[in-house]
Amino acid sequence: MTRHSASPVSEADLHAYVDDRLPPVRRADVEAWLVTHPDEAARVTAWQRQADDLRVHFEPELAMAAPAAMAALFDARQRRDAMLRRVMQVAAVLLIAVTGAGIGWWSRGYVEPPRIPALPAEAARAHLIYTREVLHPVEVTAAEEQHLVAWLSKRLGTALRVPSLAAEGYRLVGGRLLPAATAGGTAAQFMYETRQGERLTLYVRAGESGGDTAFHFASEGRAAAFYWVDGGFGYALTGEAGREALLPVARAVYEQLTR
Amino acid sequence: MLFRRRPHPIEAEIPRLRRFALALMRDRNLADDLVQDCLERALAAWALRRNGPSLRPWLFAILHNTWRSRMRREGSRPDRMPLEAMGAEPAASGGQWERLELRDMDTALGLLPEEQRAVLLLVVLEGLGYEEVARIQDVPVGTVMSRLSRARERLRALTEDRQPPSGTHLRRVK
Hints:
The structure holds two protein chains of two kinds. By secondary structure, chain A is of the alpha+beta class. Chain A is 46% helix and 18% strand. Chain A is built from seven helices and seven strands. A seven-stranded antiparallel β-sheet of chain A has the order 1-2-3-4-7-6-5, sandwiched between helices. In chain A, strand 2 and strand 3 form a beta hairpin. Chain B folds into two domains: 74 residues, Rna Polymerase Sigma Factor, Chain: A, CATH 1.10.1740; 73 residues, Winged helix-like DNA-binding domain superfamily/Winged helix DNA-binding domain (Arc Repressor Mutant, subunit A, Orthogonal Bundle). Classes of the chains: A alpha+beta, B mainly alpha. At the A-B interface, helix 1, helix 3 and helix 4 of A face helix 1, helix 2, helix 5, helix 6 and helix 8 of B.
């Protein structure tokens, strides 16, 4: 018989054989070895009989119902868990009720102040309305830039500067005066476009309350805006080409206006 | 009962725990007392059992520890079944033999040192692997193998002594 050379059969192999824990190849080795070792084969047979006897002897135990004391342990556990869940539920409801009542009491007589539309939202609305215009996108065109700047500066009450965005590929189209929701009530919009007709707007709003702010970003739908407040004026640069495209232009605007 | 509660996963293992404890202690009251203790410990530790060993080896480890700490507390008292009891077995003959042999098995089991008995029961009755038994007893696998070997050989010697007498009673001398 040609077969792989088997390593010697150990005592542990014999137990693993009886307990059926050998891989098939090793099992065959042990079986073959036992044929030529009758004394060991007799031991193994005795062990197998012991195991069968043990199982037969103790098998009926598995059908026994658990004593009441053990079942009670799990009943108590279940009751405790259910009770804990109930307590947590009640506590949660109470917390909500108490919080609600507290907020109600605390905010009695409280009237919500008139909300000033956020700068970027107002700028975006104006952007979306006028950048779609083919015939009248601006009131005063860039051809009359001096007049445009003087007029809007007067209406907003500050000397406006119009940033040049030629380096970013945008030329000034012109501008217009708009009503704003702030106390000052006026805003100016300057429109720029690329050679391909992609448009940006710079929205300047007078009457910003609150202090200066850092450079922020907001987007809603297709419109994205970088905005900031400086010296009582809000500025928002709005475009539709996405944040990455808008950022360098917004930086250029910011630098020119705050310099 | 209108509402039947959902059984806890541990509950399905109770028959096995009780069977092992009975085979180990050979007294039903003591065995059930041990299992009760084990179940209390298991329930207390249940929340901490995360991704640990599978349920059965985990429970048997608790049972084994409970049993061992109880043994330590009560001191290593002698086995309740004295050796002499073996000799007091009535001679059997004919169809009665098989039942008697099973009772012999129980008696012979009682004559094994407890750790050996536990290994044999965990391997044969509960079908646990040698490594699992080593973890349960907190000993090396080699110790489990030698305990298993000694338990089997002792049991063989004890039960072979009790083969039905066929003329001359031949004792196997080792």
